[in-house]
Specification:
It comes from Candidatus Komeilibacteria bacterium RIFCSPHIGHO2_01_FULL_52_14. This protein has 9 helices and no strands. The protein is mostly helical.
């Protein structure tokens, strides 16, 4: 079996996640008391980057399954995402001593609220996965995926607007690329692909 595609997939995946973290790390200034404020954005960067890989993997799933253990990839990376999306806001709140007013003053109310709403929508995936054994969640799983995807896209705008590493430079370009391709992947996954599937089923 040709191992080159598998190697390329793995390298691409790690690069997509580690590059934003590397840019963030190299831009940091370590002043006394700045540790949490320096690291909490890293969890957000990591979560979004992995979710971007998820969005692309939905498009290329048949091909990916030929070269990697796709289900294990989704399961393991989803666990990492869950840790990151819990750690990111929690560490942010801790770094501001749970003073919401100071948090709003530092980053602005509008995009913090977009992030909060996006987070709530995004977490529906993990809640739904836990409760998937119940008929309601099983029947509405596609809707849950759609809701969490909307949350993912809202997180993109949240990060682009207030992420200090995303205001300029090459990472901003990469981030916009992530956002645009994620949106296109979403349109394909929940629009074009579903349309083709329904059309095929209606003609069968």
């Amino acid at each position: 079996m040709n191992k080159l595609p598998r190697i390329c997939i793995i390298v691409f995946g790690y690069a997509a996640v580690l590059y934003p973290l590397w840019v963030r790390f190299n831009s940091l200034t370590w002043a006394p008391g700045s540790f949490l404020q320096n690291i909490f954005p890293m969890f957000g960067l990591a979560a979004f980057s992995i979710l971007w890989l998820h969005s692309l993997s939905g498009v290329f799933e048949p091909w990916l399954r030929k070269h990697i253990n796709f289900d294990r990839f989704v399961e393991q990376t989803a666990a990492v995402v869950l840790i990151c999306i819990v750690a990111h806001p929690l560490l942010a709140l801790i770094s501001f001593d749970f003073n919401i007013g100071n948090l709003f003053a530092a980053y602005g109310v509008k995009y913090i609220l977009i992030g909060v709403i996006g987070w709530i929508l995004l977490i529906t995936y993990d809640v739904g996965k836990i409760l998937k054994r119940y008929d309601f969640f099983k029947k509405n799983w596609e809707m849950i995926l759609t809701i969490s995807t909307i949350g993912f896209l809202m997180i993109f705008f949240h990060a682009l607007a207030i992420g200090s590493d995303l205001t300029s430079g090459p990472l901003r370009i990469v981030w916009i690329f992530y956002g645009v391709t994620a949106a296109l992947a979403t349109i394909y996954r929940y629009g074009i692909k579903m349309f083709i599937k329904n059309k095929t089923e209606n003609h069968s």
